[in-house]
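#lab-general

N.A. 3:47 PM
ok so I finally got the sequence cleaned up, no stray characters, all 414 residues accounted for. can someone with queue access submit it? mine expired

B.Y. 3:52 PM
send it over

N.A. 3:53 PM
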Amino acid sequence: NQRNSQSRDGGSILRFVPSDNSVGVMRAFDRAAYSDVDVYDRELVYVPVAKAGPEGYILDIFRVSGGSRHEYALNMCADHDYELTTDIKWQYQSETMLPEGVKYTKPTGESDSGNASGHYTAYMFVKDVQSAELKDQPYKISYKITEDGLIKNVGLNIFGTDNTGELLMGKVPSMRATRKSTTYDLNDQCDDYQMDKMVLRREGENLDSCFVTLMEPFSEKYKATVTDVEKLSIKGVHEFDIAVKVTGEGFTDYIFSAYQEDMEVMVDNIHFKGQFGYVRIQDRKAVVMQSLNADVLSYDNAYVPKNRSVSGVIKDVLVETEGDELNGFVTDVKPDEGLKGQYVIVKHPDHTYTGYKIKGIVENGGVCIIDIGDAEPGFDFVGAEHTKMMYYPHKERKGVTEFTIEDTGIVRAE
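B.Y. 4:20 PM
back already:
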């Protein structure tokens, strides 16, 4: 709604799976980002393309609910000259990215931010704006760096899946000079270089939006492989549950991401039930399958093993610097010892979350403990269902402190 975020904590980690030549997932949310927004949830999925090497793509899933205007924005290359192409057929032109007719005054000094009649002031700096209406349709944007002396044919392909709204593209200061040397770190150099800024804008009352975008970098050595991205229409699931089909040269990927409750999908011989799933098909065979907190992920006769995910309540906190033998959490249930090396997400009563890597699962005198190694918990109990942060801002929380560990299972074809 053209307002700055009101977030104080910067959001909370909901899911974290690092990539080890496997699918990596990072998901975060922020309930306090905007007063009239109920859902503000971003998930990034990294998918490697080659068995070994840096090739891969990012799938960006951005869920928003509430308010009357949602925008998904991307900046193109800020550090180098480039050539941009797109399949979008531009329909309109405007002076800035502000709504037509809005009066604005640009800043006259370094301490002045200007005025845009109550609208987002940064949009008055976007010039030469082109726009087009999207009606349940995809789009593609590509850019390739043109500067001499760099690796040849370096660029990025951006695939936007079917969506409805207004797509805008304009020129903005890239601030490139300020990163070349501290000598140039001055406001009067900020307009020396320009880059393209894309905004996909959706408007409506009590709006729900789910922006799904794939980005794949490429170069002369590492060619682009993705040719098509499709957000699948699945009946009987939540509108924020996502199923995506990615077609590439010699492979087809399927990615499933549930919003809250488990989603169940049967598509193209794949059966999935759970929170997150990934399948790569080559020559009609599943060569890689990866699940996260999923009871079922199968393709023909291939399937991912038993789900060991667990949730429960934290009964006590152990802190080495306070005299305990280790850093960790005493829990009401014992997680499977095979979850060592994965991540525990602690859910605080104020709906903020923190994550820790699991060093081990131990049982001592009938007490179950999640050992988090050298990481400090950062909080401790000061009473029954009453915790306090050990460091600034020393926030106190009252209520049940919960945890969850989402099991990651990976199967590769021999």
